[in-house]
Design a protein that fits this description.
heterodimer, A: 462 residues, mainly alpha, 3-stranded antiparallel sheet, two-stranded antiparallel ribbon, 25 helices, 59% helix, 3% strand, B: alpha+beta, 20-stranded antiparallel sheet, 22 helices, 23% strand, disordered N terminus
């Protein structure tokens, strides 16, 4: 499949061009040097769409990159009804801590709009509101629904709405933000983590922001504004002076030159690469465009269509959620997500509880000897013919569905589905040969083969 | 495939219908005479049709079909119907008549300690039995040939019978009107040996079995015999019997576990009594003389004993226990020694609530040994609304030795508990309970409630509105209830009881009564919750979850009434379960769609 010299040559040429913003963000057009392949189609779905099944990959191959990205970005007609149904399920599950994450996972597995869910996860990681501090599943549920509503919309609208969310206020210690005692943590989080990034403001700015945010209380699970508790005296903030309220604060924050690049860098890390820290110059065009109206959907579209995106295969380590969900979506099944939520929490990703105020660190932090073993075990459990996940993932059935029932064809299908072109040819052949030599045929050996593929290092890379 | 499906059709039915062979044809002895002496488990059913006949009702078939609402279940049902139709054609009969003919003579099932199993089925129609056997065998031959394993189906002569083997873990033979089916040739050969050796060592001649048979009696329609000497050698059983006792288990089961640890045999008899199915256990085991597990659960004095369950409107279940709580807790170091260190926190809390009064003598010693727990359907106030998840109300009813003096102490403890709950909820910014006093039936009682919700949607309010904890002290009774409505009903009930005191029963120490219709109603009220839980726990579609939930609801709907009684017969523990069943009406359960 791939000649090593060709790979090295191509990588070197890409390395030279990746630093060029005009090339990096230009739409990818397949050519002789970089044809549209299964590997790229799978890469698109892994990064943007929580994984793909064989039918989707084949369709994407046939459509080409432009149409494939377009289809992902434009929600299917059934998406609204689907999300409404799941909103209702999640609202009903708020009686227990574990209920809503289980439904969210089910939503991730079954959603017809996986791009929306990916962006929701991105924003959730960005704002990192945790139930460990909120301790209220109903509030957390509302917060996630809000993220989803605005995930592909305007960031400024999202931010403004979030400041009204009780979960955000409670998590950041701003349950009672009164003028006699403005909450500095909330203000600092708003600037350092949500908008400007670290090192872009002074303590005086924090004070000013905190005073501007006063007057908001969480009472009976609702955010309420009490005017007499708002500090309406003049404040100094980011070089400006005036009687700023929350609206003014947000406007000033979004006008800062540091805000758009900070957010764009987050999107870059989430969708392009977390191994390479891009220079400011590379992100500048994106940031400039984003700063016009903070349209996250447009930003995402630019990224997903870009040359740089399609040059960054397997440069992210899959989060536990992505690892499991992509495996399940690939095999076109649904599993018991109550158990899955618990297993993913053991691997370091409890959906409702980002571990720190900076969210999940991601990258190499996902992987150590324990979590690697845990992932392999999870894959084994998911693919087992019996056990905690009820044998719902059935590689044989998938192979039959696509007319690849013969043992060798089925193995090849799984290899292509999970690992597309990511393995050197000799490795592929060795795996297929070992599988063919197996003592028996049938569903069980294919399950074991799938579990083996899921445990390979490449399977942990998105 | 047909073989597997045919066996899967026949086997569960056969497993349900363990029938004792009554020598209905050709002078065959009871099947237990062909089962090995060391069998760890023997199941026999006499008159299987008496138990099976209700299952053949057209209403039941209609109900099962109606429950299969999703594609997967419908497909499975169609496959089953296909197999049944095929067999009907081969045997020249409809499936109901076929079952009666094939199973009417009864059957027995035996499990050897080594894992060998033997199923004996006595047919009323030998010809049909042989026809069925041949049909299944021919199907197996065809299937094996198609898979390239033509030699899989084999036969040989053993003694004067032909042994067939359709798979590596299957062997069977037909002798007169009896089908013998074993999970291996060795077990089948042993049965055939016993057949030709009337004085051979069979389970029927084993002293333990005979003792069990005598205890169960001849009027039992079915019997299950367990050789406890053999079973205690099984690791899981050993672990279960020797495991760490927990306080609640010790309180509820009294001396049952200790008796099972000493028992040589355990038997379950199944009887039909005026339309009720009665299951009764017998054993030779008993707790050692003077055991603490006996002392707290048996009436010591005349006039003491088990009080009847209390009747209230909408009652779902009532548990009545005769338990001397003081004796029970005083013996905790013997009853659950590994848990006593964990009780320190509990005792500390009790010390706070009861203002330092010693728990065993000062608190538990103030109660008479009758405890009743009542579960009833709730009546919600329409002005406040109905919670999305509807919980039944529940209450404990005790009697106090010194109601005047101790009653006030209990009241104080209860209010402290409510206060603690309020404080904890307040720490989480959750609304707390308001304590109030009210009167009912001339009895002043204390209740607590959450202030009404501000939500205008009264159809699905928060689950906390299932609870209005209340405490009432009518006479020498103490009622601790989750709702004031149930407390009021219980005030009425105990006042009625006090006016005409019942005679306590000394025959039993525990009884549990369940009203099937009301249990079904509360499950149905929470059907949507069960469906959602099923979806996230099993990962199936909504339709699959609805089908599974539907089957569960239908099964509960078949229960009209159940009564479980635990007693001691001649120092041996005995459990009796009476079940009054009813067939489903075939109408699908109401579906409540998510809004």
């Amino acid at each position: 499949m791939r000649d090593q010299a060709q790979i090295d040559g191509r990588a070197a040429r890409l390395q030279n061009r990746n630093g060029d913003p005009s090339w990096a963000w230009a739409p990818y057009r397949p050519d002789a040097e970089r044809p549209w392949t299964l590997e790229l189609a799978a890469h698109l779905y892994r990064r943007a769409a929580l994984g793909a099944n064989w039918g989707e990959l084949q369709q994407a191959l046939a459509d080409g990159p432009e149409a494939a990205v377009g289809k992902l970005l434009h929600p299917k007609p059934e998406t609204t009804a689907f999300n409404q149904a799941f909103d209702a399920y999640e609202n009903a599950a708020t009686g227990s801590d574990g209920g809503v994450p289980a439904w969210w996972l089910r939503r991730l597995i079954q959603t017809p709009d996986p791009v929306l869910e990916q962006m929701t996860l991105l924003w959730h990681n960005h704002f990192a509101i945790t139930n460990a501090r909120v301790n209220n599943p109903a509030m957390m549920c509302r917060y996630v629904h809000l993220l989803r509503r605005h995930a592909l919309g305007r960031f400024d609208t999202l931010l403004e709405s979030l400041l009204d969310e009780p979960a955000v206020l409670v998590c950041l210690g701003a349950r009672a933000n009164r003028k006699a005692r403005p909450n500095l943590d909330f203000a600092r989080a708003l600037m350092e983590r949500f908008t400007l990034g670290p090192g872009q403001f002074s303590d005086q700015d924090v004070q000013g922001a905190a005073r501007a945010l006063t007057g908001w209380f969480v009472s009976q699970d609702e955010a309420r504004y009490i005017p007499r508790e708002h500090d309406s005296a003049p404040k100094k903030f980011l070089g400006h002076e005036g009687d700023f309220d929350r609206k003014d604060l947000l406007r000033l924050l979004l006008e800062q030159p540091a805000t758009a690049p900070f957010l764009v860098r987050k999107v870059y890390r989430w969708f392009v690469s977390e191994t390479v820290s891009p220079p400011d110059a590379l992100l500048a065009p994106l940031a400039a465009d984003f700063a016009k109206d903070f349209d996250a959907g447009r930003l995402l579209e630019t990224v997903l269509r870009s040359n740089l995106f399609f040059s960054s295969c397997r440069q992210r380590i899959k989060s536990p959620v992505l690892y499991a969900v992509s495996l399940i979506r690939g095999l076109e099944a649904t599993v018991g997500t109550a158990r899955l939520a618990s297993d993913l929490a053991d691997l370091g990703q409890d959906l409702f509880q980002p571990p720190t105020l900076k969210g999940w660190a991601g990258g190499q932090c996902w992987i150590n000897r324990f979590t690697l073993l845990g992932r392999a075990r999870l894959a084994e459990d998911l693919l087992a013919g019996s056990g905690p996940y009820g044998a719902r993932l059935d590689p044989s059935a998938i192979a039959s569905k696509y007319g690849q029932s013969a043992p060798e064809a089925a193995s090849r299908l799984l290899l292509n589905l999970f690992l597309d072109g990511s393995l050197p040819e000799e490795t592929r052949q060795a795996l297929l040969a070992a599988q063919a030599r197996g003592p028996d045929q049938g569903p069980e050996p294919l399950r074991r083969f799938a579990a083996l593929l899921a445990a390979l290092p490449e399977s942990h890379l998105a | 495939m047909i073989l597997k499906k045919a066996l899967s059709v026949c086997a569960p039915v056969l497993a349900v219908l363990a029938v004792q062979a009554a020598g209905l044809a050709a002078g065959l002895p009871p099947a237990s005479r062909w089962a090995p002496e060391d069998a760890a488990l023997v199941v026999e059913v006499s008159e299987p049709m008496a138990l099976l006949e209700p299952l053949l009702s057209p209403d039941l078939a209609k109900a099962m079909t109606a429950l299969s609402t999703n594609q997967e279940s419908t497909l499975k049902l169609q496959q089953l119907q296909g197999i049944v139709a095929y067999l009907e054609l081969q045997l020249g009969t409809d499936w109901r008549a076929g079952l009666r003919a094939l199973l009417g003579g009864g059957f027995a099932f035996a499990l050897e300690p080594g894992g060998g199993t033997l199923l004996s089925v006595d047919a009323r129609d030998e010809k049909m039995l042989r026809q069925l056997e041949e049909t299944v065998r021919q199907s197996a031959v065809g299937q094996a040939s198609a898979q390239g394993r033509a030699g899989q189906v084999a036969s040989r002569q053993y003694r004067d019978a032909t042994l067939w083997s359709l798979a590596t873990n299957e062997a069977h033979a037909v002798v007169d009107n009896r089908l013998l089916l074993a999970n291996g040739p060795a077990t089948l050969e042993r049965a055939l040996d016993l057949r030709l050796e009337p004085d051979g060592k069979c389970v029927a001649s084993a002293p333990l079995y005979q003792a069990a048979r005598q205890a169960v009696g001849r009027d039992a329609r079915a019997m299950v015999f367990l050789n406890m000497q053999k079973l205690r050698l099984v690791a899981k059983v050993k672990e279960a019997l020797a495991g760490d006792a927990n306080p609640l288990g010790a309180l509820l089961l009294a001396d049952t576990r200790e008796a099972l640890c000493q028992a040589n045999w355990l038997a379950l008899g199944v009887y039909l009594d005026e339309g009720k199915l009665v299951l009764k256990t017998f054993t030779d085991g008993q707790a050692p003389a003077g055991a603490k597990t006996v002392a707290f659960a048996n009436p010591l004095n005349a006039g003491e004993g088990l009080l009847p369950p209390l009747e209230v409107t909408g009652r779902i279940a009532c548990l009545s226990l005769h338990r001397d709580l003081r004796e029970f807790y005083a013996a905790k170091d013997e009853l659950f020694p590994e848990r006593t260190s964990g009780l320190v926190f509990f005792e500390n809390m009790m010390g706070i609530f009861f203002s330092g009064i010693e728990l065993t003598e000062g608190v538990l010693g103030e109660t008479w040994p009758d405890i009743r727990v009542v579960v009833a359907a709730q009546r919600y106030d329409a002005a406040i609304g109905t919670p999305a998840a509807q919980m039944p109300a529940f209450a404990a009813v005790l009697r106090l030795r010194h109601p005047q003096a101790f009653g006030e102490i209990v009241e104080e403890a209860w209010q402290k508990a409510v206060g603690l709950a309020n404080f904890t909820r307040g720490q989480q910014a959750l609304p707390g309970l308001i304590i109030d006093r009210a009167s009912h039936g001339g009895v002043k009682y204390t209740l607590s409630y959450f202030r009404p919700p501000g939500d205008k949607n009264t159809a699905a309010i928060d689950g906390r509105y299932n609870y209005r904890p209340s405490l009432a002290r009518p006479g020498d009774y103490l009622i601790l209830s989750s709702t004031d409505g149930l407390a009021q009903d219980l005030i009425d009930a105990v006042q009625k009881e006090a006016a005409s005191p019942p005679t306590p029963s000394q025959a039993a120490h525990s009884t549990l009564e369940i009203d099937g219709a009301r249990l079904h109603a509360i499950l149905l009220a929470n059907r949507e919750e069960f469906i959602r839980k099923n979806m996230v726990e099993k990962g199936g579609s909504r339709e699959q979850a609805e089908t599974e939930t539907g089957f569960l609801m239908a099964a509960v709907g078949c229960l009209d009434r159940a009564v479980l009684t635990l007693a001691r017969q001649n120092a041996h523990p005995q459990a009796t379960l009476e079940l009054k069943l009813k067939m489903p009406d075939g109408k699908p359960e109401k579906t409540t769609a998510m809004k």
